[in-house]
Design goal:
Blueprint: E1 4-6, H1 13-19, H2 24-30, H3 35-39, E2 44-46, H4 47-61, H5 66-72, H6 82-87, H7 92-101, H8 103-106, E3 110-117, E4 120-127, H9 136-154, E5 162-164, H10 174-180, E6 183-185, E7 192-196, H11 197-200, H12 209-220, H13 230-241, H14 249-256, H15 260-269, H16 274-290, H17 297-303, H18 309-320, H19 324-331
Parallel strand pairs: 5-6
Antiparallel strand pairs: 1-2, 3-4, 4-7, 5-7
Length: 339
């Protein structure tokens, strides 16, 4: 069964598509969706169809910032019932913890990991589908929505240090600068937002603890749009933790809130193997990194969890039938050392 998400993830697709001269109904039909499906934001739709819709619309309109333009015109209420709970959290830290806890009600295809490093907080995000798909538009939509969420909680106190994307820069990045209001890095090692740790615990002047308790009780009574398999949840965790060097079964189990034996048993029940899942994610990520001229082959190996270049070369050759250097010369972009 395909992974399902709320139709609300495509809120304002029709408006943005029409504004850019597209026929929204034709775009929807192309991926097996319809205008009627989007009328109820809580209806379940296939995650892969939603992601492909955004990529198609960007290509057909010639607008490389299609997903980001959707994020720019989103309303906080478009997050559904979870928006009420987020509005009344005491701090941004609390709001982000709610986002992680209830992400299955927001966007089940979205993986989120909050990392604190000294006086820096990094919000990592990945859009993951059942089979790997180009996710540039969905990623920019997700990170744009996250930035707007943070700004809604903190108001003028929200001053991110940088927004980061693993994909390359568009020809014109004015929309990115307008939406995020900070440095935007393309060809980065992760997708997400870096912000000062001090902002993480800044008080939310609109917080109402009583309303937050009421909202949480209501949200806990809601049904998720289809239950994601443990295999899919593990894949999402691997996407986030592999570039950090933490994609061990112990770390993945901890991220999912279960013990290793339980995770192994659930994977076995699903006829899945943890090592195979890591390998599957590596195959997807390596092509993303190889097409990024900022990364050397040595750095790519590190991002995939290999401490020795020779180990990375052996793995790559076994997977693709040629060495990384030869593959990159034929398919990717040549490495451009920093000046």
């Amino acid at each position: 069964m395909p992974t399902l998400v709320r139709a609300g993830v495509l809120t304002n697709f029709l408006e943005v598509a029409q504004h850019l001269g597209l026929n929204p109904q034709a775009e929807l039909a192309r991926v097996g969706l319809s205008k009627k499906m989007l009328q109820d934001p809580d209806q379940s739709i296939p995650a892969g169809a939603a992601v492909q819709l955004l990529e198609n619309a960007a290509a057909d309109s010639g607008c490389a910032t299609f997903g980001l333009r959707m994020a720019e015109s989103r309303q906080f209420s478009d997050l559904g019932a979870v928006a009420l709970l987020l509005t009344h959290q005491s701090t941004l830290r609390d709001a982000l913890q709610v986002t992680v806890q209830y992400r299955h009600l927001l966007n089940r295809a979205l993986a989120i990991y909050i990392e604190e490093v000294g006086d820096l907080v990094i919000i990592r995000e990945e859009v993951v589908t059942d089979t790997p798909l180009p996710c540039r538009q969905a990623t920019e939509l997700a990170i744009g929505v996250m930035a707007r969420l943070c700004a809604s909680v903190l108001g003028p106190a929200w001053r991110p240090l940088s927004v980061n994307f693993t994909h390359g820069a568009p020809e014109d990045s004015r929309v990115h600068r307008r939406v995020f209001g900070c440095q935007v890095n393309f060809g980065a090692e992760f997708n997400g937002i870096a912000c000062p740790a001090a902002a993480f615990d800044a008080p939310n002047p609109n917080a109402d603890p009583a309303m937050a308790r009421y909202a949480r009780r209501f949200i806990d009574s809601l049904q998720a749009p289809g239950e994601a398999s443990v295999v899919f949840e593990v894949r999402k965790a691997i996407y986030l933790l592999l570039p950090m060097g933490r994609a061990t079964i112990e770390q993945i189990a901890q991220a999912l809130g279960i013990n290793v034996r339980t995770l192994q048993r659930r994977l076995e029940d699903s006829d899945a193997n943890f090592s195979d899942l890591v390998n599957e994610v590596r195959r997807d990520l390596v092509q993303r990194y190889m097409n990024n001229p900022i990364h050397s082959l040595g750095r790519i190996g590190e991002l995939l969890g290999y401490s020795l270049p020779s180990s990375f070369t052996r793995w790559f050759t076994a997977q693709f039938g040629t060495t990384p250097a030869v593959w990159r010369a034929a398919h990717g972009k040549p490495y451009l050392p920093p000046v």
